[in-house]
Amino acid sequence: MSRARLYLLSPGFEDPSRPGRFFVCPHCNTIEGLLKSFPGLATQLDVFRLPFPKPRRVLVELLGEQHQSLPVLVFADTVPVPADAKIANGHRYLDATDRILAILAERYDFPQLHD
Asked: Where would I find the H helices in 38-110?
């Protein structure tokens, strides 16, 4: 991969176990809000919004069956990665929202959230 990939849940999904109600992922929505506020960021990496139901085939093929939680940031093959990056199927990634936000701020001149 030549660019980082950011995977998020599509907002406004329906949980099959709770028909007629729609939900958002609070972790993905934090990132969505910042992407909306700073649209230039989305031009610097590939952003994919996946449906709620599992299996999430694209993640299964990329990271394996056990790595379907979102959000997830998969690093490009050509960049250094932080020491806490995880590895699955030869791909390096982060799946903790706070770490994803920190890396976006560090690498893409993206504002950090203030505590």
From this structure: 57-63, 97-108
Apex CA 108: angle with CA 50 and CA 106, to 5°?
A: 105
* Burial call 21-53: b when 16+ CB within 10 Å, e when fewer: eeeebebbebbbebbeeeeebeeebebeebebe
Tens-digit pLDDT profile for residues 59-70: 999 999 999 999
* Dihedral sign of CA atoms 98, 103, 105, 106 in order: positive
Domain locations in the chain as residue ranges: 5-108
Phi, psi of 84, deg, nearest 5: -90, 10
Q: pTM for the whole thing?
A: 0.90
Place of tokens 């959230």: 113
pLDDT of residue 113: 61
Give, rounded to a whole angstrom, the gap between the first and last alpha carbons of the chain.
33
- CB-CB contact of 8 with 71 (8 Å): yes
